[in-house]
Amino acid sequence: LLGTLMSLASSLASKHLIDAVTGTGNRKIGAAVAAMVALALGGLLLQAISSRVSARVHVRLRNRMQYKTYGRILRATWENMDTFRSGDLLSRLNSDINTVADGIIGYIPSLLGTAVRFVGAFSIIAWFDPWMALIAMAGAPVTMVVSRFLMKRMRRYSLNMKQMGDEVMSFQEDSLRNLTSIKAFAAVDRYRQEMGKVQDHYADAYLSFNSFQINMSTLLSLVSMSVMA
Predict the structure, then answer these.
(1) For residue 178, what are the contacts with CB-CB under 8 A and spacing of at least 6?
(2) What one-character-per-residue DSSP string does 109-157 give?
(3) pLDDT tens-digit readout, 124-160
């Protein structure tokens, strides 16, 4: 939140600097430059502190979640565990927990920061030009509706990508764990072919997801440009 407020303050300082350079404002250039430098240095310091705190919180949260999940796996009954492959469990213990930890420590701060940035930017625009602020607000519902529709599809693509990644990891872990048996039964070539098929499935899912991301980014950009126009 402090970083967001400093970013908004930096935009105001930039505005005063431009006014001072063009002679349309009554502020001195030195004061505007000093404010921008102070805000820039403060932003760098704050970013370093925030990154360090986030790293400490992330690793503690990740370890705690991984420790609890690992304990539950060990205490689970054989009937329940028999439905999971070992590679799938490894993916849940590592990849899934990292994703959840990132979401926990990133979602709420990002949501609050975005809210403060929106309110602050709207207030600044309304202070200098109320009509411009109203025009900017008029396009917000359109962007929200389009974003909501796209986010639903994004979740489906993300889930599919996660499942394909788990499939690759499970196949690799299972085959390497039984490498002696694979060699003993002369099944190396067959497993290589199966590995190629699994990789092809992952590549198809990845490229489909990438295509959706490109189309989504382009569509949102067009919506934003239309609103600004």
Answers:
(1) none
(2) HHHHHHHHHHHHHHHHHHHH-HHHHHHHHHTHHHHHHHHHHHHHHHHHH
(3) 878 887 877 777 676 667 677 777 777 888 888 888 8
